[in-house]
Design goal:
about 240 residues, alpha+beta, 2 domains, six-stranded antiparallel beta sheet
């Protein structure tokens, strides 16, 4: 089955363990995920090597349809490349797209899980993580205050404020990260620790996640552990060479 350019998604489809580089090299773009099935547009849908690699990487069955190579590459750039949305735009869309955040919703774990699974919140959290990796931050701090919700990156030991979402989105954002780290989103009175492993910008990166209850909601810190930036040379660490 062939697909027209109008059928490509308007928003990025987030697929675990699939990098943009792999999409470009293999000439495919994800269309949607539905009931354990990943639908993709491929320049060569008969390339079973790529299809098997996709199944192995994301753990989903794959339904491939044919698309024009130039349209696939255009879609990748629009959705995942330089043409993708800025953090400010994503925050605005998340704020407009999330309406029901009453106190009853915040107390209901199922409703909160649904809220954290909304596409605008997923895009927002993904962009916060991607931007932090791009600027080589060591930590992402999500901090609630009485009248605002701050997002700060720790870069070279110094905390830097970035464009922050409105405080009404803090519970959904914190819950999204907790879901990714396999933490209990219903537990907000005790500290929790977890971990996330993601492929970001073609690199496998570990995140250590810690939550802490505060007066104005949960505070969360993500420690970014990029294996490629680890310094293992003793001389560079300041130790004498004879050790």
């Amino acid at each position: 089955m062939n697909i027209s350019f109008q059928e490509y998604p308007r928003e990025p489809v987030v697929v675990n363990n699939i990098s943009v580089k792999f999409m470009r090299q293999s000439r495919f773009v994800p269309l949607k995920i539905e009931e354990g099935l990943l639908k993709v547009a491929m320049a060569d849908p008969d390339d079973f090597y790529i299809i098997d690699a996709l199944k192995l990487a994301c753990g989903l069955n794959v339904d491939a349809c044919r698309g024009r190579e130039d349209e696939i590459l255009d879609a990748i750039e629009r959705l995942y490349g330089a043409g993708s949305q800025s953090l400010e735009t994503i925050i605005e869309e998340a704020d407009k797209g999330i309406y029901d955040i009453s106190s009853e919703v915040l107390e209901d774990a199922d409703h909160l899980r649904d809220l954290a699974s909304e596409a605008p919140i997923i895009r927002l959290v993904n962009r916060l993580i991607l931007n932090a990796v791009d600027v080589r931050a060591s930590d992402i701090h999500l901090e609630p205050f009485e009248h605002e919700f701050k997002v700060r990156y720790r870069i070279d030991g110094v905390l830097h404020g970035v464009e922050s979402p409105p405080s009404r989105l803090q519970a959904a954002i914190i819950s999204r990260v907790k879901i990714m780290a396999k933490l209990d989103i219903a537990e907000r009175r005790l500290p929790q620790d977890g971990r996330i492993k993601l492929k970001v910008s073609d690199k496998e990166i570990d995140f250590r996640v810690s939550t802490l209850p505060t007066l104005f909601g949960e505070s969360l810190v993500m420690r970014i552990l990029d294996r490629e930036t680890l310094v293992l040379d003793l001389g560079k660490l300041g130790f004498p060479n004879e050790l």
